[in-house]
Specification:
Length: 358
Amino acid sequence: MTQPTKEAVLAALGKVQEPELHKDLVTLNMIRNLEIEGGKVSFTVMLTTPACPLRNQIEAAARQAVLAVPGVETAAVKLDSDVPNDGRMRGLVDMPIRNAIAIGSGKGGVGKSTVSVNVAVALAQSGARVGLLDADIYGPNIPTMLGVTKLPSPNGTKLVPAEAYGIKMISMGLLVKPGQPLIWRGPMLNSAIRQFLGDVEWGELDYLIVDLPPGTGDAALSLAQALPLSGAIIVTLPQMVSLEDAERGLNMFKTLEVPILGVVENMSYLELPDGSRMDIFGTGGGERLANATGTPFLGGIPMDPNVRIGSDSGRPIVVTNPDSPVAQALRGIAQNVAAKVSVAALSKDNALPINIVE
Ligand code: ADP
């Protein structure tokens, strides 16, 4: 039998669609290292995020397409990833940050920091380079949630982020002296945010997650002015009062022209030992808010006492109980966010095409 040609294999892969970008793998230049030896074909599919929710589906479709080419006996598919750069970041040479994502909420105590920490760690678990900036000056509890008590010594004038569970983290909580009056913190934060971005040795990051203070305050404004945000996520509880706050938070990002990646509903329900669900804070509000405001619903997170136990002991739930429904929901949200960021980056004219390989 004749050996299949590269052209024939590429033609077959040219019929496989990337389900979210709605273009084929060849047009998107996602096929790399194509090699053919007799009937044995091998290649790499370069995904736009290691946290791609559809990676198995894409891999299977690519393999199937190639195996259908006459003469192909085996197809070895490798998956790799190269996160596209939000093109607007390129001018900011001091910040090798590909995408910055803000996490906000209308009010405190809804689980914004919990979502920030676990989404950041879940992205890192998938293989992405992730930074977490805790800008919630009123409740800077991310160090506790990650078991970090101090920052490493600065490198010259540059702050060095702490590292935990594969992510880099800087928190206002590690810089502000305990007991410092809150009234000083607001103005300090606004000037500190720019410094946090430029004067920190983040290294190259695929995603910088920023945990904002709750409400519609100045921090979001300072942040949006300091760097182009790829998008924002709003965390809310399912009940009505919380939703009104969340809607105000959402409108703030709209005013700042920050794209809304979606709404996350936390503490959606409590799973009882008999497997039934109890709605503590009402039901379905996050989804209603998303629908009413024309924004995507990113998912609901159940209640689980292990979330709080993990938070208090510095161990995120995606690490301690990776198979629990809460951890699965948080991982799903991380994948959803990563996919949305890639789609948004690649649909912008100024985005770096993914075919630029170092
Ligand atoms: P915020 O950042 O919005 O103020 P936190 O993330 O600090 O909120 O969460 C507030 C408290 O609720 C914390 O003690 C946290 O451990 C707990 N918590 C958050 N989400 C959940 C959940 N899904 N199940 C159980 N406890 C949760």
